[in-house]
Write a structure and sequence with these properties.
Elements: E1 3-9, H1 15-23, E2 27-30, H2 34-45, E3 49-57, H3 62-74, E4 83-88, H4 93-99, E5 104-107, H5 117-129
Parallel strand pairs: 1-2, 1-3, 3-4, 4-5
Length: 132
Amino acid sequence: MSTAMLYYLAWQEDDWLDEILDRFPEVNALVPTAKTFEQLAKARKLGEVNRAVLVLNAAHEQERTREFLQLCMADPLLSTDPLYIVGLKPEEEGAWQEAYPSAKIIVITGFAVEFDYDAVLARMETDLEGEQ
């Protein structure tokens, strides 16, 4: 049976993971490596996951994160999945948006405790439910 899956990809645990785990009953949290890419691509190709939302925290290991995204963007299925890039500083937003124009770049300005995670998570939930 095929399913929808939210993938949270980060180099370390963080506030985003906590918020996502509080909202979504099923989350696959992974480190964004080449092996992880192969796992995601295989699940999509085999139809084990027919709809995915990728949430990538780019706060750490930015060069390796870009390498992972290049793999995803070259994949015919993963490249069509909704992509959220989180964990960036405001001054980094433009370069990432230019490099990944279809991505939703989420930047927290001010204090994280004041950020409206719920609004962003609701958008992720809508994307996960999809229209496919």
